[in-house]
């Protein structure tokens, strides 16, 4: 697929938005509940996406995807991400894993795994954080991989807040192959089959009542030698690359959900009438509209700036930190204001607002809490504050 024109992208965006609005929104409650019925609906949505020519748009064309560049996909990601289930329904959910494994997977993994990921025949997830260990400090990783006498690895440890662990076929796990917890060296990434002996889903970890997060245990799980992702001891570089893209993609999708909440807020203000006319005539409601729009419009350029740098292979730590924090705050703020304007109706099951508000609040903790991004960005800015602009090095390629 050649790079589309601006007009082509706009048309694709509208088609994606219509698909998510008409086909995904009506099934969100059932999809949220999980189970066999959710699996059946997901399979049906995927088939409809293929029929509509919207399947796996940002994944490599040679593997069966749409071949869109990250820059072109960024224009669609908001529309697709207006529902948490949009990326899965449209086949773009494995973008992070496909990108990581295409760059850092072994020849066997690239040949055997990538086509199945793009077709939807395999599901993957990523396990980094451990119980009672700050997720912002990967050097404290205690999960260990030991060499097997006959080749390969045996992995032992625990991970938690692993998204979609129960449905995944393969899990990329951050492990320690050398050194002790606290050492930044000696961390590696292994692609672990979830059907292997010793792999256990310990429990589900509902987030504000929502499903999808799990704690897992690994008890001497055997892993093949060629399932090492990147070089041994090179996990932090690979994970850092993945995190920059992942945080930016999630920020784009949070913008789509914030826009959805804003549209609901405005529709409610116009349609809801009281003794003194529509809510839209009340100044306090007008302020909610203004503040929500300000949050949304302020976050959007930050997110797209970050994506442009990430797509260009540039160092974007500052831009990604700003984008992730701004998008998470915008989603929480806009959803909260929409709930306020809806009143009691915004608290119940008849609107998506409780789910949008939940996502906005968790977004400020998961994938790096606000505090981590604030301090990381500030340190980088202050580090360069004494250097004249003309002498500062250009952002480095990741």
User: What's the SSE pattern?
Assistant: HHHHHHHHEEEEEEEEHEEHHHH
Overall, the morphology is: globular
Which CATH C-level class of the largest domain is it?
Mainly Alpha
Question: Helical percent range?
Answer: 40-55%
What strand order characterises the main sheet? 1-4-5-8
The overall pLDDT average reads 93
**What is the CATH superfamily of the largest domain?**
Butyryl-CoA Dehydrogenase, subunit A, domain 3
Description:
The chain is an alpha+beta fold. The chain has three domains: 6-93, Acyl-CoA dehydrogenase/oxidase, N-terminal domain (Butyryl-Coa Dehydrogenase, subunit A, domain 1, Orthogonal Bundle); 124-233, Beta Barrel (Butyryl-CoA Dehydrogenase, subunit A, domain 2); 237-391, Butyryl-CoA Dehydrogenase, subunit A, domain 3, CATH 1.20.140. It has helices at residues 6-24, 28-33, 36-51, 70-80, 86-89, 95-104, 107-112, 114-119, 235-271, 283-311, 317-342, 353-363, 370-384; strands at 124-127, 144-147, 153-163, 170-176, 187-193, 199-204, 213-223, 228-229, 273-274, 277-278. It has a four-stranded mixed sheet. A four-stranded antiparallel sheet has the order 2-3-7-6, with no helix packed on it. A two-stranded antiparallel ribbon has the order 9-10.
Strand-helix topology:
Layout: H1 6-24, H2 28-33, H3 36-51, H4 70-80, H5 86-89, H6 95-104, H7 107-112, H8 114-119, E1 124-127, E2 144-147, E3 153-163, E4 170-176, E5 187-193, E6 199-204, E7 213-223, E8 228-229, H9 235-271, E9 273-274, E10 277-278, H10 283-311, H11 317-342, H12 353-363, H13 370-384
Parallel strand pairs: 1-4
Antiparallel strand pairs: 2-3, 3-7, 4-5, 5-8, 6-7, 9-10
Helix pairs in contact: 1-4, 4-9, 6-9, 9-10, 9-11, 9-12, 10-11, 11-12, 11-13
